[in-house]
Amino acid sequence: MKRKFLDFALIKIKKKYPEYDEIKLEELEYGLEGFYLTFTKLLVIIPLSIILGLFKEMMLVMIFFNIIRISAFGLHATKSWICLISSTIVFIGVPLIAKIIIIPFIIKIILGIISIILVYLYAPADTIKAPIIRKRRRDKLKFISTISCILLTFLYLIISNELLSNLIILSIWIEVTLISPFTYKLFKLSYNNYKTYPLKMD
Asked: pTM score, two decimals?
């Protein structure tokens, strides 16, 4: 079903924008695949979160996570069913954890500093399907990701609501984990895929 959706969408795009090269089409396919997977995951995660009384918390995690994810990118599951299971565990599990843990303020500061450093070092993290081969684009995405992480860190440090603060911290660290080269290595996936392509500055 996913392949049919992507093929149909790409045919329409090629017809409307014949000037798009293969690199541009690969980037669009990556985005379309992300949209498809997100939509299908929500069909499972939303009803489950409602049943468990976690809908609001789950939506907040998705929002905070995607604020960084949209520019930092990161690891993707190799199979749709793996993506569904792992996403369900994360987006249901994180709100549950956020409700029960208490993180001392000094630990929050340390976690914030570490996360900002790691985002600066490792974002954006591409995949073999969507290598980010243009240096200017990588630099721009790194800047946006780092600023997003700084702002979210500042936000969770100043708010008094412990649950909301926890949700933001855990959302950041989901993405930090997904852009880490160690996570890529753990799952035996190639990292910095853009390096296999000729250098493009624009």
From this structure: 0.83
